[in-house]
Amino acid sequence: MTASPPDARPPLVLASASPRRLDLLARLGIVPDRVVPAEIDETPAKDELPRLLAARLAREKAAAVAALAPGALVLAADTVVGAGRRALGKPADAAEARRFLQMLSGRRHRVSTGVCVVAPDGTRRERLVTTILSFVQLTPAQIEDYVAGPEWRGCAGGYSIQGRAESFVRFLSGSHSNVVGLPLFETAQLLRGLGWLRP
Predict the structure, then answer these.
(1) Where in the cell is it found (predicted)?
(2) 178 backbone dihedrals φ, ψ, rounded to 5°
(3) Cα 129 from Cα 144, distance rounded (Å)
(4) CATH of domain 12-193
């Protein structure tokens, strides 16, 4: 009896410390070989639109980690909440999370995720996915109650749609997994296009 041939795919490195992205990849049956968070400056450039910021940061994260992981296929992503032209990243503290929720209350906003994959030979593929959401008008008590909990921590825009904040969403158009932090359809397409994920 002959042994099965070894997997010819390169190791997959996730350039993110987000546990949400690990959970989302697991839905595709994917477990990265390594997790290497990218150390980059995430400060928006002057007048940089939220969706362009998400695309640029994903690209820069992928490049930074690819330099540290030769021979690997690197997957990076960055999610930005856009309220008009303003990018809402991860709130630094509860006060900023409160301000973000007040800003999103009763209005439509966009969540954009840039996804970038770099193959061992340097080939780069990218996608930018945007989902449109609308929140109900939040009461001060709802905002205070939400900020008193842990869900806002480490989440763009100061909320986690896979938790209690999903009850704030009265309208959503586009990818739900994108709002969580990684658009699964587009990510799978990128990995298939590079031959890493089987059809």
Answers:
(1) Cytoplasm
(2) -60, -40
(3) 31
(4) 3.90.950.10
* φ, ψ (nearest 5 deg) of residue 159: -150, 160
Give CA–CA dist 156/150, Å, rounded: 14
pLDDT number for residue 4: 37
Q: Which amino acid makes up residue 154?
A: G
The answer to whether 78 touches 54, Cβ cutoff 8 Å, is yes
**Residue 78 bears catalytic tag:** yes
Whole-angstrom distance, CA of residue 27 vs CA of residue 21: 10
What band does 7 get if pLDDT is binned at 50, 70 and 90? low
- Measure the CA–CA gap between 192 and 125, rounded to whole angstroms: 11
DSSP letter at 82 equals E
pTM more than 0.70? yes
* Interval 110-125: pLDDT, tens: 999 999 999 999 999 9
The b/e string for 144-168 (b: 16+ C-beta within 10 A; e otherwise) is eebbeeebbeebbbbbbbbeebeeb
User: Which of 78, 93, 121, 145 is labelled catalytic?
Assistant: 78
- d(CA 49, CA 29) in angstroms, rounded, equals 33
Strand partners of residue 83: 86
Q: Where are the alpha helices (DSSP H) in the chain?
A: 19-27, 50-66, 94-104, 140-148, 176-180, 184-193
Residue 57 φ then ψ, to 5°: -65, -40
Tell me the one-letter amino acid at 157. G
